[in-house]
């Protein structure tokens, strides 16, 4: 047992759990932790965005008139930025999910390999998002 | 010698409702279906030129793609249920609020599933 823990126990204070400020400010999070929390946040944000996305999907498919309406909505720069943000969320969730599937099959489970694959997830999802951004803003 | 039931004494299972494995597996299976669907749509989005109603609706007018999309979305909603339920279980401790949120999630996802069918079969 370390000296710090002993000292705390001597003074009769309970050992406290890790709290939110420890997670967000005091400790540097490893790549795997960042991927993990972004996986959860992106999943939740996509869940909240479901009505917006289904509405766009509906407008794009129902008729030529609704398609023109859909095209009008998504050509607005603000909508493009929202869609780009959701695309990043989706692509991150996608890549992090594939990493999970590999780990379920006992691949890349040790400390170094898991941090390396976590970095790949962050990099690949950002690269794919850049591709989507270029396409969305009409570069190619 | 008397017959010994399998679920008493040391053999008795004392933990879990045993839906964990099923949901864990369902989340993985639906994920694989969504990966395939995503790759198809992402490649067609990134390689496609002049996005028109004819091309887009034509893709979804095909029966096999309609059914594939429906299966993917139903899988998505099941996947969402597992994930969102985990979030409520992790962060919402009062049982009443948690149960309310869980019920609202299920009802909302059922509505989304019906909406998806309506969208797909309007093409």
Describe this structure in words.
The complex is a heterodimer of chains A (140) and B (123). Chain A has 6 helices and no strands. Chain A has helices at 3-10, 20-26, 31-61, 64-75, 77-104, 111-136. In chain A, α3 runs antiparallel to α4 (64-75) and α3 runs parallel beside α6 (111-136). The longest helix of chain A has 31 residues, at 31-61. The radius of gyration of chain A is 22 Å and the shape is elongated. Helix content of chain B is 75%, strand content 0%. The longest helix of chain B has 29 residues, at 63-91. Chains A and B meet through α3, α5 and α6 of A and α1, α2, α3 and α4 of B.
Quick take:
Helices cover 80% and strands 0% of the residues of chain A. Chain A is built from 6 helices and no strands. Chain B has helices at residues 20-47, 53-61, 63-91, 95-120.
Radius of gyration computed on alpha carbons of chain B = 21 Å
Largest interface, counted by CB within 8 Å of the partner chain's CB: A-B, 25 and 24 residues
Largest sheet of chain B, described in full? none
Q: Helical segment tally of chain A?
A: 6
Low-confidence segments of chain A, given as residue ranges, are: none
Helix run count of chain B: 4
Gross geometry of chain A: elongated
Estimate the strand proportion of chain A: under 5%
Shape of chain B: elongated
Please give the alpha-carbon distance between the first and last residues of chain B: 69 Å
Low-confidence stretches of chain B: none
Main β-sheet description of chain A: none
| Category by helix and strand content of chain A | mainly alpha
Helical content band of chain B: over 70%
Q: Tell me, rounded to a whole number, the average pLDDT of chain A.
A: 90
Strand tally of chain A, please? 0
Helicity level of chain A, as a percent range? over 70%
| CA(first)-CA(last) distance of chain A | 60 Å
Oligomer: heterodimer
What is the succession of H and E elements of chain B?
HHHH
Radius of gyration of chain A: 22 Å
């Amino acid at each position: 047992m370390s000296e710090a823990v002993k000292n705390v126990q001597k003074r009769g204070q309970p050992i406290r759990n890790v709290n939110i400020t420890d997670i967000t400010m005091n400790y540097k999070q490893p790549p795997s932790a960042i991927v993990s929390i972004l996986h959860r946040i992106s999943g939740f944000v996509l869940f909240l965005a479901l009505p917006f996305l289904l509405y766009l999907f509906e407008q794009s498919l129902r008729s030529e008139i609704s398609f023109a309406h859909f095209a009008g909505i998504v050509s607005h720069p603000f909508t493009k930025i929202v869609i780009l943000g959701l695309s990043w969320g989706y692509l991150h969730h996608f890549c992090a999910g594939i990493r999970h599937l590999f780990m379920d099959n006992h691949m890349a489970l040790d400390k170094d390999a898991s941090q390396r694959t976590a970095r790949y997830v962050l990099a690949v999802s950002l690269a794919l998002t850049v591709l989507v951004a270029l396409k969305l803003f009409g570069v190619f | 010698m008397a017959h010994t039931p399998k679920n008493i004494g040391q053999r008795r299972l004392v933990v879990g409702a045993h839906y964990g494995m099923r949901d864990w597996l369902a989340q993985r299976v639906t994920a694989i279906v969504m990966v395939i669907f995503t790759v198809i749509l992402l490649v067609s989005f990134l390689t496609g030129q002049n996005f028109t109603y004819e091309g887009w609706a034509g893709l979804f007018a095909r029966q096999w793609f309609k059914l594939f999309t429906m299966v993917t979305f139903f899988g998505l909603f099941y996947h969402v249920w597992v994930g969102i339920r985990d979030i409520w279980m992790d962060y919402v401790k009062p049982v009443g609020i948690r149960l309310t949120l869980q019920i609202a999630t299920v009802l909302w996802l059922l509505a989304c599933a019906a909406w998806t069918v309506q969208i797909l079969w309007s093409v």
